Amino acid sequence: MTAVTAPGAAPSAGRPRAADPRHRARRRRRLVALAFALPALLLLGALVVYPVLFSVGRSLFDASGTRFVGAGNYTEMFRDPATLTAVRNSAIWVVVAPTLLTGLGLVLAVLVEKVRWATAFKLLLFMPMAVSFLAAGIIFRLAYEEDPDKGVLNAAVVGVHDAFADSSSYPTARARDGQGLAKAPDGSYTTTGSASPGDTLALGLVGVKPADLPEDARPAHGAAAGKAGADALSGVVYLDFTPGGGGERGKVDREESGLPGMTVEAVQGGRTAATATTAADGSFAFRGLEAGSYTVRLPAENFAPPYEGISWLGPALVTPAIIGAYLWIWTGFAMVLIGAGLSSLPRDALEAARMDGANEWQVFRRITVPLLAPILTVVFVTLVINVMKVFDLVYIIAPGPVQQDATVLATQMWLVSFGGGNDQGLGSALGVLLLLLVIPAMVFNVRRFRRSQR
């Protein structure tokens, strides 16, 4: 006789309960999701989790990797002057680069809205993002060359300088020993003997290529005859070199050229009594001098080397120079992100402020910037994370002699581990330090994204 279970009664303990179809569907979806996520999880573990754990473990061992030193590498890390320089430079990067980029991006995003060809302008500024850091580093390494004939920045600086300040025409000129001119400590040349009004001096110089003479230079032989008069102290400054050979040293030969445009001074008692400038044939004359003895001086400004520009990659400017290259690359990124946030602002608030009498600066400072504060924060924090990991530009742009002056944590980690230091224990400790510094910014950014999604 079959037992009948009353309605509402619990099933017997020995009878299996049928699986819930919804439970089985939910479990199937989870398995499918896991199957799709498994390759990404494996890659994440192999490329991120395992290297992090391995680096933490490796940082506890010495350079050979066989002796456990505990926190010894972390202690040594902060005793090394190079590491302290890297920390200082990284701090400069974190403070300066994201701040400038966020400010530039904001200003450009606001200005681009008022430009007719806004899309083309954005494209032009964003194009450097398509250039690799390696290529950008090579470009700026060439642009920062100190030689004005190679470095475009110094070429521009020298061009502007020479437009407002005259440069010396004879930077390589010099006097021969024993030819009546002695070099002073300040670089000037003074006659070894004295002269009086009515005398004529011949001041010969060498070291100037005939091809480098000014176009208006004329032969100096006629000027050496002394036609200025008995009441004037006259003379000639000439190139004591005869093209093709021959000629007599210390004497103005017919083929020898004068040196025009050179400043000459008559000195008496340590005071400059008169000043003259040589003519096309190198002649000069001092008239109206009082009777007495004078020495003639060729000031150091005649022989000053030409202005060569700025040492962009010297110890003092190498870090700002590299930051400038970084700004060139990332300004378009900041501008595009901030511009996207700007396009979503409520236009009625901006128009209402303008109708109430606010000018554009007040609208920008009191309405635009506060409304853009969330996107500005995201851009700033993202750039901080990126700046902490900068390596390529520093390694490529900074020359070898100033590499230590420009080093940051990422480059120092590489140099210590593989660039000659061969201490992967200390390099791993630097990598762990870099990770610990990046994590707070990453957590802050993730939390902001989650809050914005809610």
UniProtKB/TrEMBL annotation:
InterPro entries: Ig-like_fold, MetI-like, MetI-like_sf, UgpAE/MalFG_permease
GO terms under biological process: carbohydrate metabolic process; transmembrane transport
Keywords: Cell membrane, Membrane, Transmembrane, Transmembrane helix, Transport
Occurrences of domain ABC transmembrane type-1 (ranges): 87-445
Domain of life from the UniProt record: Bacteria
Low complexity: compositionally biased ranges: 1-16
Location(s) in or outside the cell: Cell membrane
Spans annotated as Disordered: 1-23, 170-195
Transmembrane segments: 31-53, 91-111, 123-144, 321-342, 363-385, 425-446
Pfam families in the record: BPD_transp_1 (PF00528), CarboxypepD_reg (PF13620)
Family: Belongs to the binding-protein-dependent transport system permease family.
Name of the featured protein: ABC transporter permease
Organism: Streptomyces tirandamycinicus
